[in-house]
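As a next step, we paired sequence with structure tokens, yielding the entry below.
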Amino acid sequence: MREGIRALAPVVPDPETNGGFITLARVIKTQGRHGEVAAEVHSDIPDRFAVGMKLFALSKEQLARRELEIEDLWSHKGLLVLKFVGVDSMSDAEALIGSELQVPRAQRAELEPGWTFVSDLVGCIVFDHGKEIGRIADVQFGAGEAPLLIIVSEAGKKFDVPFAEEYLEGVDAAQQQVRMNLPEGMLEINTPMTTEEKEHQARPEKRKKR
């Protein structure tokens, strides 16, 4: 998950924790022959990474953390290339693939007014024009300009709603509430089909006997 995203209203942050840590990036692959790795960044905070910064690599099995220090870094094709002190070969770098690069909870970035942490959104109740529609189960990126809220109602129905400024009335992370004013019909349009609906759609229609 990204560390922070832009929202319309001021928020009260409540940090995501993973044993007291938050994830800033995930190692995708090796990059080069001298221990460099390419990572997918999960933070929108500018200049979040710097030479000399300490990170903790949580293995993909999530069994242990390894403290690392950034020796060098640069951007490459949408990823962040990192060279860590003591990671000097391709085999060293391969051991980091799939690891989450984390910092302790106390080091979570200070956000500017109008920003919110993604982790603050998960679990929040969403209201549309004052009516409760469900809780946020996940936040997804890449489908459009705005992140996508995956909302699940008490009845188990899912809704995909853009977390866009023009729809957002306010976020109160302390009360776990997101208040929105969605265009009429958006919830019906952005409701994924259920498994039963998909099966019914794929089932060939029976021809009526004459």
User: Anything to note?
Assistant: The CA atoms of residues 29 and 38 lie 5 Å apart.
